[in-house]
């Protein structure tokens, strides 16, 4: 993928149900077409995907209120979640991988996975706002768990804002548990400028072999 494939997007829209409205921030209207995200193709993102994924991640995390999905946190943090340069740095940080979900050749979700000893650190789980509430986030989590097993990791851990109770509850429904560890949100503006004091909570899930 790169910045999108409007020809394939148009073809997909002609054959899939109009499950979603079109997204209009930063990309052509045909870019996120009305497709039903039931059978995504999962693959490792490449540098060529960075422009489209940067846009997707920022839409998921920082969309305007009228266009935001339920994972948006623009009310807590100002500015973009990530820029293209930072994403390219993450893509180059082997053995970490940014797992990308595509439908009809279009990115609709992603999750960053970084092995740390016997644990896999999960971050930047993002689903395009108009593709949410159709199980794609759960599919990405399941793929992350498979990746962890293949990497020989025993558990997955992540950091979630304490000020996002609905997001914490969602992860807990997927089997993640609070470890009791917490830390202040980083003082850097790399992830956005906090609008209020924020705290990160550590969540963990022990995974077994299938």
Would you write up a description of this structure?
By secondary structure, this protein is an alpha+beta fold. It has one domain: 3-Layer(aba) Sandwich (Aminopeptidase), CATH 3.40.630.30. Helices cover 26% and strands 28% of the residues. The chain is built from five helices and nine strands. It has helices spanning 6-15, 50-62, 84-91, 136-150, 165-173; strands at 41-44, 77-78, 97-103, 106-116, 119-127, 155-161, 177-184, 193-194, 199-206. The chain is globular.
Largest sheet: 7 strands, mixed
Helix content: 25-40%
> CATH topology, anyone?
Aminopeptidase
What is the CA-based Rg, rounded? 17 Å
Keywords:
210 residues, alpha+beta, Aminopeptidase, two-stranded antiparallel sheet, 9 strands, disordered N terminus
